[in-house]
Amino acid sequence: MEEYRIGDPQVLKVVAHPLRVRLLGLLRTDGPATASELGRKVGESSGSTSYHLRILFKYGFVEEDSEQRDGRERRWRSRYRYTSWDAGKLSGTGEGREAVKIMHLRQAEMVGRVLEEFDLADWPREWVEVAGMSDDLLVLPPAALKEFEERAGELLRDLAARYADHPDARKVHLWYGAVPRSRTEDS
């Protein structure tokens, strides 16, 4: 279970639906669940979550978890650890640019939701000191951003392997991203 690489803007739009993004994220982070369980977590009816799970199934994002069958209800699980797409390739058409833009906005919404749910009072000092976000404004070419992405990925995989069994280890949301300033801001 590694990566779902999207090359079709229609498929990217399918997964970019706000509720589908949330459902898929929950299945990836919390593991298999029924439509009813997911509905309670996201404040939707089981009918609504069931419909969107069937759409995710149709496009290969989720599958039935036959190992954990729950009586009458299907348990669903994500087929992939994460979803990616080639923005450069998809941006060759208006539809592709629109799909990438929608997905970027969904990702930003998810960051906002996670930060809203994070309560400093719930965590010990050592977690509070390292949790949060920062930003930088640098002058870099595209090659430098590509190198950053590759090296950050390598570092994260190394750290995850080294600390996998650490008693203080927890699932952590970690984001990194970069976009150039608009041309009007840069002048």
Question: How would you summarize this macromolecular structure in one to three sentences?
Answer:
This protein is 53% helix and 9% strand. The chain contains 9 helices and 5 strands.
- Main beta sheet: 3 strands, antiparallel
| Euclidean distance between termini CA atoms | 45 Å
Cα shape: globular
Assign the CATH class of the largest domain. Mainly Alpha
Estimate nothing, just give the exact number of structural domains.
2
Q: How many whole angstroms does the radius of gyration measure?
A: 19 Å
Number of helices: 9
The chain-level structural class is mainly alpha
InterPro entries: ArsR-like_HTH, HTH_ArsR_DNA-bd_dom, WH-like_DNA-bd_sf, WH_DNA-bd_sf
GO molecular function: DNA-binding transcription factor activity
Protein name: Helix-turn-helix domain-containing protein
Domain HTH arsR-type: 10-105
Give structural notes.
This protein has 187 residues and is mainly α. The protein folds into 2 domains: 121 residues, Winged helix-like DNA-binding domain superfamily/Winged helix DNA-binding domain (Arc Repressor Mutant, subunit A); 54 residues, no CATH class. It has 9 helices and 5 strands; from the N terminus they run βααβααβββααααα. The chain has a 3-stranded antiparallel beta sheet with strand order 2-4-3. It has a two-stranded parallel sheet with strand order 1-5. α1 runs parallel beside α6, α2 packs across α4 and α3 packs across α4. It is globular and about 55 Å long.
